[in-house]
Each structure stands twice: as C-alpha cells, then as structure tokens.
Write a structure and sequence with these properties.
The protein is 34% helix and 25% strand. The radius of gyration is 17 Å and the shape is globular. The structure holds aspartic acid. The site of aspartic acid has 14 residues, from strand 8.
C-alpha cells in the first residue's frame, strides 16, 4: 500500500550485526530514527507542508544525533579531522545544493540548502563553503565539536552512519537530503557519493533517493540517477528500479543501501550490506524502524 504524504530515513549501512550491537546503542539509534521521522512528519502533516522542508528537518535531527556518522559523531579522516559532506535536492524544481569537506558548520545539510537557495551554484567545497556558512549566519562550531570518542570507536566497529531522508508531500512533490562524515580514515579531501547529485542524492518530478554505502562505487554506478532513469525510461516499479541500481553498485564490489520514494508514496529501502539503520512513515500509519536483515 502506498499513501501520501510519506517519508523514509536512513542512518547508514554497513557491517551492522545484531551480535555486535549493544542494547544501549540499538535503543539510541532507534530513538534517533524515530525523532527524525517525527520531525519530518510534523512538517508533512502541517497545511502546505513541503517534502523539501521535511527532509531537511529529518536530516538535521540525525546530524545532531551522536549515534550517526554525520554532523556530531562523524568519523574522522586520516588527519583526525571531521570533514563533512551533505546535499539536498527538490524534485519539482530540480534545484540542488551540496557541500563537501566542510569542517566548521554545525549542520551541513542547512548549508547545502543555503547553497541551493542563496547562491547560483550547486556545490561548494572546503574553506569557501565554510566561509559562506559564517557569512550567512549559520551555526559555526569548532571541529572538535563533531568528535565524540566512543562513537568514533563504535562507527569503526559497526559501520554505517551516513544519514538521509526522502519524502513525498500531499501535493506529490518529492525531495531528498543526505549528510555524512564519509568513510573512517578516508584521505583528507576525499569526497564520496553523498554530495554528488545523481550518485548519493537525487530528486526529480517522480522519485527521490538518498544512498549510503561505499561511496566510490555508488559514484561509479550513478546509483541515485540510475533509479530515476530506470523508472522514467523502463516503467519499472520503484522497488525493482532500486534493487537493480543497487545491484549495479554491488557488481562493482559496492556494499550499501538506499531509501527511495515516488510521487505516489511508494517507498523502497533496499540494502546489500549486513544492516541499514532505517525507518519510514506514511499517512495513516505509525512510524516503523529496523536495523538488521
Ligand atoms: N556513502 C558515504 C561515503 O562514501 C559513506 C556511508 O554511507 O557510509 O562517504
């Protein structure tokens, strides 16, 4: 069954196994997903609530949640620095904004939104992006603020942690947003699929996608755009297109998963890793979350 409005969130994919997970972390992650769903749902249930605002609200909650590898609690690169990437895309207008390798903006997804709204650009990186965050009056923090010791160890052990949201609002408009600290120990300056429009994040007039996984392979398989193209060109269901695009990354050796929604309110949350932190809600239903296979 599909219904609109609807919303899905993820908190990353990877070697997430029940036997490795402490009950406390399991509960904290589940609560983070529920909080994000509640934030997005609040937007979507308001009069004229927009999918774009819902995905921003949901991802912002997940960035602030220490359990996930985005915003506070992000993994560190080879220099011991949190370098953050985020993107947002609005389906009806095909507007997009992205930032990569930012180190001081508290909520990278809000900066991605500003890049979309307040500049003529789609992507800003590094020092220039951090500078515009300050100029625009976004919350700026010391890089140490992102770093939480225990989380860093747990990310390394349990994998995953990138966050994302996709939503369809009552008008049938869709949007996607994704945010990450990248992969543990990545080379300074490395950028994965998350902020690459068409790889880790995509929205158009029909579908919205947010990915998580081995970013290099998601880029090389153009996973998010592949789903949109399959839906548009082959008439495949959202679920079939999502499975096929993920298999494309898998064939290159890529683990991961994604969340996808279409204008009718169909949701797909496939993954080929051990687990994926995920949750969804649709009008008339209660929110649901899951972690393992
Ligand atoms: N896709 C992210 C990246 O490659 C990492 C992840 O989803 O775990 O940066």
């Amino acid at each position: 069954v599909s219904a609109i409005p609807a919303l899905a969130v993820h908190g990353g994919s990877g070697a997430i196994r029940r036997e490795d997970m402490s009950p406390a972390r399991e509960a904290a992650c589940t609560q983070g997903l529920l909080d994000a769903l509640a934030a997005g749902r609040r937007v979507l249930e308001a009069a004229d609530g927009r999918a774009l605002d819902a995905v921003i609200a949901a991802v912002r909650v997940l960035e602030d949640c220490e359990e996930f590898n985005a915003g506070r609690g992000a993994v560190l690169n080879s220099d011991g620095v949190a370098e953050l990437d985020a993107a947002v895309m609005d389906g009806p207008t095909r507007s997009a904004g992205a930032v990569a390798a930012v180190t001081t903006v508290r909520n990278p997804v809000l900066l991605a939104l500003e890049v979309m709204r307040s500049t003529p650009h789609v992507m800003l990186v590094g020092a220039g992006a951090d500078r515009i965050a300050a100029e625009l009056g976004l919350d700026i923090v010391d890089n140490e603020w992102f770093v939480t010791d225990t989380r860093r160890r747990e990310h390394a052990e349990n994998g995953g942690g990138t966050v994302g949201a996709v939503a369809v609002d009552a008008s049938g408009a869709v949007a996607a947003a994704t945010s990450t600290g990248g992969m543990t120990g990545q080379h300074a300056g490395r950028v994965g699929d998350t902020p690459i429009i068409g790889a880790g994040t995509w929205a158009d007039d029909q579908v919205a996608i947010s990915g998580t996984g081995h970013g290099e392979l998601f880029i090389r398989a153009a996973v998010a755009h592949e789903i949109a193209a399959r839906v548009r060109l082959t008439g495949e269901s959202l679920a079939a297109a999502a499975e096929a695009a993920l298999a494309g990354a898998g064939a290159l050796g890529g683990f991961g998963g994604l969340i996808a929604v279409n204008a009718e309110g169909d949701l797909a949350l496939p993954f080929n890793s051990d687990g994926m932190f995920r949750g969804s809600w649709a009008a008339g239903d209660e929110p649901v979350t899951a972690i393992y296979r």
